[in-house]
């Protein structure tokens, strides 16, 4: 598995997660909604490499109409999501979660399944939905692309900094959607959140790093970011 090879080569930089994404087939015309059999084929790897994993993810729901056009597609996504939440609880691991066009049902499902440690990445749901996640103890992360999104700015204002992490989602979700995103651009997220919160980038760096380390305690080292 490529991610495990990378972790062996860069043990201080790469912390592996395993998960079956709600969309399969890459980002092109072959992309389709996940099916239960997609998880069945991969599930043994979760247990085989359980000692090396820091989280289960990226998992979740994507109800974007062109990605999951039928109720069966959405039902299959929920089935796969719940099964992976059960695996996370069994292995005592946090989850890294995708929730496009499905923020409310994603958070409701996690709460119903008793999930207490979760990161909702690139979250774009309503502030009221996010605050339900905050009540459940969940964290939210934002990539550089949010720097050009006024709605997400309002969202970040309402989420306590103690519930925020930084991310890039490289190579996607950069500041310029036509330019490949890079891990170094995490400083853009840091500075943007600092500006929204009226804090220094250094304060945001420290607190979000603490949040990440608390959520992912298996990580051996918090990677410091120079904002």
Summarize the structure in words.
Helix 7 packs across helix 8 (201-215). The chain has helices at 2-9, 36-48, 71-91, 103-112, 127-135, 150-158, 186-197, 201-215, and strands at 17-18, 23-24, 32-33, 55-62, 95-100, 118-121, 139-142, 164-166. It is globular, with a radius of gyration of 17 Å. The protein has two domains: 1-120, Metal-dependent hydrolases (TIM Barrel, Alpha-Beta Barrel), CATH 3.20.20; 142-217, no CATH class. The protein contains eight helices and eight strands. With 227 residues, the protein is an alpha/beta fold. The two termini are 33 Å apart. A six-stranded parallel sheet has the order 1-4-5-6-7-8. It has a two-stranded antiparallel ribbon with strand order 2-3. 43% of the residues lie in helices and 14% in strands. Mean pLDDT is 92; it is low at 220-227.
What is the straight-line distance between the termini? 33 Å
Q: What is Rg?
A: 17 Å
What's the CATH topology label of the largest domain? TIM Barrel
Number-wise, the strands total 8
- Give the CATH class of the largest domain: Alpha Beta
Low-confidence stretches: 220-227
Largest sheet strand order: 1-4-5-6-7-8
What portion of the residues fall into strands of 2 or more residues? Answer: 5-15%
Do you know the CATH architecture of the largest domain? Alpha-Beta Barrel
Instruction: Please work out how many helical segments DSSP would assign.
Output: 8
Net shape: globular
CATH superfamily of the largest domain: Metal-dependent hydrolases
Number of domains: 2
Order of helices and strands: HEEEHEHEHEHEHEHH
> What class, by secondary structure content?
alpha/beta
- Helix content estimate: 40-55%
Keywords: Hydrolase, Metal-binding
GO molecular function, one term: metal ion binding
Organism: Seriola lalandi dorsalis
Function: Exhibits 3'-exonuclease activities and apurinic/apyrimidinic (AP) endonuclease (in vitro). Show preferential AP endonuclease activity on double-stranded DNA substrates and 3'- exonuclease activity on single-stranded DNA.
